[in-house]
Amino acid sequence: xxxxxxxxxxxxxxxxxxxxxxxxxxxxxxxxxxxxxxxxxxxxxxxxxxxxxxxxxxxxxxxxxxxxxxxxxxxxxxxxxxxxxxxxxxxxxxxxxxxxxxxxxxxxxxxxxxxxxxxxxxxxxxxxxxxxxxxxxx
Length: 138
Known about the structure:
The strands form 4 sheets. This protein has a 3-stranded antiparallel β-sheet with strand order 3-9-8, with no helix packed on it. The chain has 1 helix and 10 strands. By secondary structure, the protein is mainly β.
């Protein structure tokens, strides 16, 4: 897997950056953490004592919570024009390069939170930014 670094991000807080070029289609990193059930995931997402939400849903029944994990994948920020995609396979979340990624480039995925609920403002700065992280009602 390519070398990644975590540092301040122009998008939000800290971000995950490529320390070397990454070819399109390459496995970038696995999203790691504690596998938890849906009820516990909802409880943790609502916990205002945490400094961030790091749950990545595996489906409707379970999620991976990377809150206490040391892996860099939890710092991949949202972008409406992402350079990475994710694939869920056998209870694992794999982050793949959607296109060639240059050294120093911030890694991003499209979070596409559920369309319902309050809009979550997006600050990705992409040319086709939706203005919100939530998926739009299509």
